[in-house]
Amino acid sequence: MNASLFRGLVSRRGLQGVIPGRSSRNIKWTVRSERVEGEAASAGPPNVAVKPPQEMAKTFPIGLVSGSVGAVAGIGGATITIPLLCRFLGMKQKEAAGSALLAVCGTVCGSAYVFYQADAVNMETASYLTVSGALAAPLGAYFSARMPALTLRRLLGGFMMALAPLLPLRKYLEAGHFKVRLFDDEMTDGKRGFLLGSGTLVGIVSGTLGVSGGPIVTPTVAVISKPDDFHKVLGTSFMAMTLPVLSGGLSYIRNGNVKLSIVPTLLAGTLIGANLGSKLALKLPSDYLQYFFGIFLFLGGLAIFRKPL
């Protein structure tokens, strides 16, 4: 190293004279190392990535809880999964929503299978809802990738809170000659239009917020069904959620908003949880399920309204 370059290196660090016992090469290395360390310190603490074993240890219980609760409550469970992923894995909102939506496939498919085996699914009703929802879900994902969804979340939270008392109080309302059921058993044009419109809304909400649409589809099925058969309401709702959830999840993958490394363990958890929760739901009386659904719907709506997912 020539003398002028050495003097330049020494002067930039505020050193005076030559440091005994150090070669020019050592001083150059020390200066550069200190400079890098200073820049790293000024940038703040680094983001610590969650290692794969730690991810598995956290995501499987999250899936298990959301799957079991979602199966009993009549929802997909994304309203549980998203905040837990953000909290324990430090994920961003849109990435957590896309990952949760794919994981919810385990809840809705697992629950739909259990209820179908118990002859608790109205396939005609579910088909109208699921096809229209699947077609509308990519539109919701398109909106999610290009605009903040705060207003829609506030509306969804308010809608959930307003609707929560309806199903638990339905029997008493109809006993007082206040008809809650909108249609009879036969499939009319008005009923088809209602189902197609509701399915479209479910798909848009599912794709935009990364949720299953359970807070909309379950009440939709309930108001066209008999009040004393909530098991069939749940089974039909889960069957109706299958295609919208899958379609919305694939759209999130195309937009790059899914952390694929955690999806398998989340799916495993939701599948097992849905199997356990669905079998429990089939054993519970319809009245208990409606009360549980109403309470969960209100608390979920309040959480979304006060602190959106």
Q: If you had to describe this structure to a student in words, what would you say it looks like?
A:
This protein has 13 helices and no strands. The chain has 309 residues and is an all-alpha fold. The longest helix has 25 residues. The protein is globular. About 15% of the residues have low confidence.
Span between termini:
59 Å
- Strand tally is 0
Shape: globular
State mean pLDDT (0 to 100 scale): 78
Most strands sheet: none
Strand fraction: under 5%
Q: Can you write the helix and strand succession as a string?
A: HHHHHHHHHHHHH
**Class by SSE composition:** mainly alpha
- Residue stretches low in confidence (pLDDT < 50, at least 5 long) are 5-49
Radius of gyration: 27 Å
Total DSSP helices: 13
Q: Could you estimate the helical fraction of the residues in percent? A: over 70%
Descriptive tags:
309 residues, mainly alpha, 13 helices
Overview in brief:
With 309 residues, this protein is an all-alpha fold.
Topology record:
Elements: H1 3-12, H2 24-42, H3 52-73, H4 78-89, H5 93-117, H6 123-146, H7 150-163, H8 170-175, H9 189-209, H10 214-222, H11 230-254, H12 263-283, H13 286-306
